Amino acid sequence: MVRLWKGSAVSTTTIHFVRHGKVYNPDHLLYERLPDFHLSDRGRRMAEATGAYIAADPSMNQSVAVFSSPLDRTRETAGIILQALNPVRESRGEQPLELVTDERIIEARNEFRGKRIGHGEGALWRNGNWKLVTNLYKPSWGETYRQIAARVSGFADEKVREFPGRHIIVVSHESPIFSYRHMLETGHPEHWMLLRHTALASITSITYSNETGRMVSIAYVDPAADVE
Q: How much is the average pLDDT of 83-103?
């Protein structure tokens, strides 16, 4: 992709970070990195809506690679996106894309994995677990925002170099996407977790200069906002 930047033509790479769709979780557990947490029926419809949006967008449907976290919900979301995107590629005579997973874009590590947060028997109110949430700005219950943003940044830097001038799609999770975005926008990844702007199946598109590797722009869209 080529954009005008300060009066000259500059090659750019755009990474479209997609959050996975809604997960089937009737017991309201914090599933974190646990296996066997799959998309719900609504989650699949959300992924389908986002996949249709990507397939119809003249820039996004030019994507040349699709990556995801290795967890079930992200791989399933990415698979649905590929089902929408590959027919568009094939109609142009291009080879279908295959999913590639990467540990650097996995969900944040969380000490509450497998527990239920709520009243009474909720994890936060049992066995001193409340002590792990003494700082919501800099997580005290697991991987820090700085650690999260650093691994996503390493992944993004590598892909910008690997795919100069192209678009790629990356399916990940709320905390990795927003922590990294916040770092790019403010210079630090720490944020108030209740004010994140990363809806389920939303797309955060970050464009980078291939000359400097730096972020040029950030765009956000929520194609699945009305999916019931």
A: 98
**pTM for this structure?**
0.88
pLDDT of 106-119, one tens digit each?
999 876 655 665 54
Which one, of 175, 215, 149, 193, lies nearest residue 12 by Cα? 215
The helix (run of H) or strand (run of E) holding residue 180 is helix 174-186
pLDDT per residue as tens digits for the range 99-147 = 999 999 999 987 665 566 554 445 544 555 555 555 555 665 678 899 9
pLDDT at 125: 47
Angle between helix axes 174-186 and 145-162 (nearest 10 degrees) is: 80
**DSSP 8-state code for residue 139:** T
Cα dist from 158 to 15, 134, 150, 208, whole Å: 11, 35, 12, 12
How many CB atoms sit inside 10 A of residue 199's CB? 17
Count of Cβ atoms closer than 10 Å to residue 154 Cβ: 11
Neighbours of 16 (CB within 10 A): 24
Continuous segment of H or E residues that includes residue 99: strand 99-101
Q: How far apart are CA 55 and CA 48, in angstroms?
A: 10
* DSSP 3-state of 42: helix
- In order of their start, the domains of the chain are 10-23+38-111+131-219 (3.40.50.1240)
